[in-house]
Design brief:
The chain has 375 residues and is an alpha+beta fold. It has five helices and 23 strands. The protein is rod-shaped, with a radius of gyration of 40 Å. This is Cobalt-zinc-cadmium resistance protein CzcB.
């Protein structure tokens, strides 16, 4: 606001000076890029000066991307043996707990599997007894080796069958030690493997699914990644372990900390490289596909720099005002580099070393100079 008032007062004084055409002290002379002000005009606005300084300029690299889920945290859930979906309450976006029943399957093969297990278990008891009996008889030569070996083979075959059937029952989450003649189930439950939320649901009650069909797609939010794009001109400034701050367009005030964990090695068609960052804290409001912005501070080498307000822009070029005398200023073109922390690098700043540069009020000087040039 003070800048605007200063510009207005300065231009007003300028106009009056031109109309009245009084003494040379009350006029402003412009020779190319040199501006000369009277004492009265100089008092109309605040002006401070600064000298070029060697500073470590920290550049803030602004990126954008989306929240992503690593493959190990995006889980497709299927039924090991297939069957009909008897019940499920899952909906996309719903949260669940590890060990919670997310679906109940029903099929005749579950009954058959338990029947086969109980049959093998009963036969194994008889085969084990026969095996030990033939072993004792064979040791005393009361039984031939052939009979003994046959009894041993029958016992081991049934033992293998029982163990295999046990594993199949465990696979559909039926405890084989709870299976009995009076406790045969026709259903099998599907349990949540971790705490998370549902990404997609592919089934409905009554639908038959095979073992290869996906029932649900579940997301483990404990290790969400931020997938960012870095253009090739900046990718070499990114390194693993760098910290960043991310935020959404809808709530830019809410900041999420992160750390770069992976840098891609391929450049896409839009000349960008993929960079993956890990969030330092889990947040339930972050979901896969969410668009986010990120700011990565990049420490630069020491360079000659000026405060950002000292550099003005006109017609796409950058300038500073060098103080020649108390009331005289020269607008000089400069090439800028990295910026951050309120400072900006002056790439070609050697010729300005030791000279006073306008800081506060530089924009007012620009407006005064250009206004004079238009008269």
């Amino acid at each position: 606001m003070k800048n605007i008032v200063g510009i207005f007062v300065l231009l007003l004084l300028w106009s009056c000076g031109n109309k009245e055409n009084t003494t040379e002290e009350n006029t402003t002379e412009a020779t190319e890029n040199v501006l000369k002000l009277s004492d009265e005009q100089l008092k109309a606005f605040s002006l401070t000066t600064v000298e070029l300084q060697e500073r470590t300029v920290t550049k803030t690299l602004k990126l954008n991307g989306t929240v992503d889920v690593p493959p190990q945290n995006l889980v497709s859930v299927s039924s090991a043996l297939g069957g009909y979906v008897k019940s499920t309450k899952l909906l996309p976006g719903m949260h669940f707990r590890k060990g919670e029943v997310i679906a109940v399957m029903e099929d005749n093969q579950f009954i058959q599997l338990q029947q086969d297990y109980l049959t093998a278990k009963a036969q194994l008891q008889n085969a084990e007894a026969e095996y030990h009996r033939q072993k004792q008889l064979n040791q005393s030569k009361a039984s031939s080796d052939k009979v003994y070996l046959q009894a041993k083979a029958n016992y081991e075959t049934l033992l293998i069958s029982q163990k295999a059937l046990e594993e199949k029952l465990w696979l559909i989450h039926i405890n084989p030690f709870n299976v009995s003649v009076n406790n045969i189930k026709r259903t099998a439950s599907v349990y949540a493997p971790f705490d998370g939320f549902v990404s997609q649901v592919f089934v409905n009650i009554g639908k038959y699914v095979s073992p290869s069909d996906v029932l649900f797609e579940l997301v483990n939010p404990k290790d969400l990644h931020l997938n960012l794009k870095v253009f090739e001109k900046d990718w070499d400034k990114i390194s693993i372990g760098q910290s960043l701050t991310a935020y959404t367009n809808s709530n830019p005030e809410k900041k999420y900390g992160g750390e770069i964990i992976l840098i891609g090695k391929n450049i896409s068609q839009d000349r960008a490289v993929e960079v993956h960052a890990h969030f330092t804290e889990n947040n339930a409001k972050l979901i896969p596909g969410l668009y986010m912005n990120a700011e990565v501070p990049i420490p630069e080498i020491k360079a000659l720099a000026l405060p950002e307000e000292s550099v003005v822009t006109f017609e796409g070029k950058h300038y500073v005002f060098e103080v020649l005398e108390k009331n005289s200023f020269r607008m000089t073109a400069v090439e800028i580099g990295s910026s951050g922390d309120g400072w900006i690098e002056i790439v070609n700043g050697n010729h300005l070393s030791g000279k006073k540069i306008a800081q506060k009020g530089a924009y007012t000087l620009l407006m005064a100079l250009k206004n004079k040039a238009e008269d």
